[in-house]
Amino acid sequence: MVYRFQIGVAASLLTTSLLAEDIYKPSSASEGVVQKSESSITARNLREELNTPFQLALVSPIQLFSPERSVSGLRLNILFGQNTNTKGVDIGLINGSSGDFSGVELGAINLVQGNSKGIQYGLVSYTQNHFSGIQSNLLASFADGNFVGIQGAGLHANTKGDFKGLQGAWVTAFTEGDFAGLQNALAFNIVKGKCTGVQLGLVNIAGELNGVQIGLININTNGPLPVFPIVNIGF
Fold first, then answer.
1. Which of the four pLDDT bands, split at 50, 70 and 90, describes residue 67?
2. With contact defined as beta carbons under 8 Å apart, do 95 and 105 qualify?
3. Are residues 117 and 148 in the same domain?
4. Is the same domain home to 135 and 233?
5. Would you say residue 81 lies in a domain?
């Protein structure tokens, strides 16, 4: 009788111990890591989705709201301001967006790591992805993606992707992809891809011409006449 009672007590204790381990011990170390990672991602996404209608920055991150917040309204950057996405009016010495920008941006230097849509004006503007709208700067305008609209600069206008619209500069207008529209630089017009439209400048260079080149020296790399003065037509 005592022997059976001892066996029953031992079995009960063993069962209680196993249940306690199931409740308080994670099934694996990796599950704990996943739960922490998911929590961190959720918190970060929440911060990024929060918009503020106004931002005032001295030098990021010394600003009213965190750089992880987005701005939909007005942002004033005394020296340098940085936010995720910026929508509205952006004014300052150096305007920075780690995400997308849409609206009007006025500053000595405008930097957008995502896509831009609207107007950029200052000394130098750089969009790391696609641009649609007007990018006009006293020194240089840059877009790493495709460009649709007007790109102008005092010295150099550059688009690494395809271009549709008007591109001009006092010195060099340069499209590394295909071009469609009017390219008008005082000194050099360069299209590395296919140029469909008109190139007007002192020296015009196209990888492939489907249009007209007007200038002192016209170069159509893949054309029947690779170099031709004054007027060169390609089909």
1. very high
2. yes
3. no
4. yes
5. yes
Helix (H) or strand (E) holding 53: strand 51-59
User: Residues 175, 79: one domain?
Assistant: no
Q: Is 203 exposed, middle or buried (0-12, 13-18, 19+ CB in 10 A)?
A: middle
Predicted TM-score (pTM) above 0.85: no
| Residues 137, 73 share a domain | no
- Three-class DSSP category at 24: helix
CB 142 within 8 A of CB 128: no
Domain boundary among 96, 129, 162: 129
Alpha carbon distances (Å) from 216 to 168, 188, 195:
17, 11, 18
Claim to verify: residue 225 and residue 156 sit in the same structural domain: yes
Tokens of 68: 């992880």
Count of structural domains within the chain: 2
| Average pLDDT of the residues of the chain | 85
Reported for 65-73, long-range contacts at CB under 8 A and 24+ positions apart, including other chains, are 67/98, 68/44, 70/99
Q: How many angstroms separate the Cα of 45 from the Cα of each of 9, 40, 67, 69, 79?
A: 52, 9, 13, 10, 27
